[in-house]
Amino acid sequence: MKVKQCESLQEIRDEIDKVDEQIIDLIAHRKNYVAQAARFKHSVAEIKADDRIEDVLNHVRHKALSLGLSPNLVIELFSRMIHDMVETEISEFRNAKNF
Fold first, then answer.
1. Residues whose CB is less than 8 angstroms from the CB of residue 34 and which lie 6 or more positions away in sequence, other chains included
2. Distance CA 13, CA 9 (A)
3. Averages of pLDDT over each 10 residues, the chain, 99 residues
4. Quick check: helix, strand or coil at residue 82?
5. 56 in any annotated domain
6. What is the tally of structural domains in the chain?
7. Dihedral angle computed from the Cα positions of residues 50, 53, 55 and 59, in that order, rounded to the nearest 10 degrees
8. CATH number of the domain that residue 31 is part of
9. Residue at 3 is within a domain
10. Is residue 32 in some structural domain?
11. Residue 74 sits in which domain range?
12. Are 3 and 12 in contact (CB under 8 A)?
């Protein structure tokens, strides 16, 4: 990913704001897929899928390391995001079963 050479602090802040917007868009995109996944699960235990969570966290840890990022930061962010999205998926699952 190419980083623009900025000429001022304001330009840097503007670019960071753009990146933040992209991050939010990608989180929303991910959440939409998580919500869809509820259709293919048969139980809340299957939604909580500890093995899958471990795989995701290992994957993002290695990706962070390859990009020179703090793996602790990335794991913390993803753990929080996954926890929230698991709760969303459980709600979707329960709502679908009530119809």
1. 85, 86, 88, 89
2. 6
3. 94 98 98 90 93 97 98 98 95 80
4. helix
5. yes
6. 1
7. -160
8. 1.20.59.10
9. no
10. yes
11. 9-97
12. no
